[in-house]
Write a structure and sequence with these properties.
Number of strands: 14
Strand order of the largest sheet: 7-6-9-4-13-12
Number of helices: 15
Helix content: 25-40%
Length: 409
């Protein structure tokens, strides 16, 4: 798994422990004393030459300029973090940039938390931002990953404080317990509720337990034995009593992410040339100029009044199925679009065409789009559309179905 490839053993404590991590993050073979004295840019203990060396390194950022073999850098998942460490230590920005670029390309939900921890360690702000984009949009996948259980406690606390996580709080609570179980094992402790509470420390009080539904609380935290009896009692009172007790847990829900919608038609119609849903496939291809996370599709409903539809939506890349969902939705007879969601948002990379499809069964007569656009600017993202060979019901760029793409960015 990618999370395993990018993982490393990190200390889980205070700032001085994190500093110690920087020293011991990668075990590199130290050069011989004579070689070290003849290597440009390596500290030999002579402080008088530091400024001159740093100046020389800044003026010679590439490998070739520093008398190394070439400017070609071969990276893979097993060596990239060690290479980034060395590039940072010996101040070779070209190599560091190549490493960060490789990590950004490799970034996905299952390794995003591990890479967040590493980007903080290496003080790579751009990589940190990319990690947050993935974690926010695909929070449930990211927090359920093995990589989440490997992060250090300061990173855990930052994640649990995050306002824009797109996830139910019950899932955040379970993820925190999984991290605590892993931390117990790292410290050689038995995995018990008491020890999980101990290793979580103040991070426990970053969980927004009261923002869960009463049912979620009763089925989860109330039976976890991680909370004290007094905490469990007070939270039950907070749900039900007129005079609510003070709690040590945040009570407000996370804001989450607001989904964005790309509208590809300029008008809709239903009277002329009636459109029919007949269990056939409506499909369109699209590409974007930056990474997004596809959350679902906005679809037209019946033009003859209220109706219920069963629908199967799919997302493919070069014929490979990335996501699908079989569900139902109700339309109210208006020309409004109705959202149909994938189970989890799906990462979509830039400059590659993807195919979205919908097959509907229900009331045949429906609204349809007209005056379709080949290019649509939606916030920071530019969408390009082209016809799909999978479409067997007449949908294309100029008109038809799938009027909206719903996404996070």
């Amino acid at each position: 798994m990618a999370a395993e490839l990018f993982s490393t053993s990190l200390p889980h404590g205070e700032d001085e422990e994190e500093e110690e991590t920087k020293k011991n993050f990668v075990q590199l073979s130290e050069p011989e004393e004579s070689a070290e004295r003849n290597t440009v840019g390596i500290d030999d203990g002579d402080d008088d030459d530091d400024d001159e060396r740093l100046s020389w390194q800044g003026a010679h950022p590439t490998l070739r300029e520093r008398y190394m073999y070439s400017d070609e850098v071969e990276l893979d998942a097993d060596t990239v973090l060690a290479t980034l460490y060395a590039a940072k230590k010996y101040i070779v920005p070209a190599v560091a940039k190549a490493c960060v670029g490789f990590l950004e390309t490799s970034l996905e939900a299952k390794n995003a938390c591990v890479l967040l921890s590493q980007s903080r360690l290496f003080e790579e702000a751009e990589l940190t931002e990319r990690c947050w984009e993935v974690i926010d949009a695909q929070a449930e996948l990211a927090l359920r990953s093995e990589g989440f259980c490997e992060i250090d406690r300061p990173t855990l606390e930052i994640v649990l404080q995050r306002e824009t996580l797109n996830i139910r709080e019950a899932a955040v609570f379970q993820a925190a317990l999984s991290w605590a179980a892993a931390e117990c094992r790292r410290q050689g402790l038995a995995v018990t509720p008491r020890n999980q509470r101990t290793v979580l420390g103040k991070a426990l009080y970053l969980l927004r337990v009261p923002s869960m539904s009463l049912q979620e609380f009763a089925d989860g935290p109330a039976q976890s034995e991680v909370l004290t009896l007094a905490e469990t009692h007070n939270i039950f009172l907070w749900y039900t009593a007129t005079n609510k007790p003070q709690l040590d847990f945040p009570v407000g829900k996370r804001v989450g992410l607001a989904p964005q919608r790309c509208h590809r038609f300029q008008a809709s119609a239903y009277r002329s040339n009636q459109w029919r849903y007949r269990g056939r496939c409506d499909s369109i291809q699209f590409a974007v100029d930056r990474r997004i996370f596809m959350a679902g599709l906005g679809l037209y409903g019946s033009s003859g009044g209220k109706a219920e539809y069963s629908v199967r939506i799919e997302l493919k890349r070069q014929g490979t199925l990335l996501a699908q969902n079989l569900t139902k939705f109700l339309s109210d007879g208006s020309s409004s679009t109705f959202p149909v969601w994938f189970e989890h948002p799906v990462q979509v990379e830039q400059d590659t065409f993807y195919t979205v499809s919908a097959v509907l069964d229900g009331n045949e007569l429906s609204y349809f789009g007209q005056e379709g656009m080949t290019e649509v600017q939606c916030g920071k993202v530019t969408f390009q559309f082209q016809c799909s060979s999978d479409s067997t019901n007449g949908t294309g760029v100029q008109g038809g179905q799938i009027p909206e793409l719903i996404f996070y960015c």
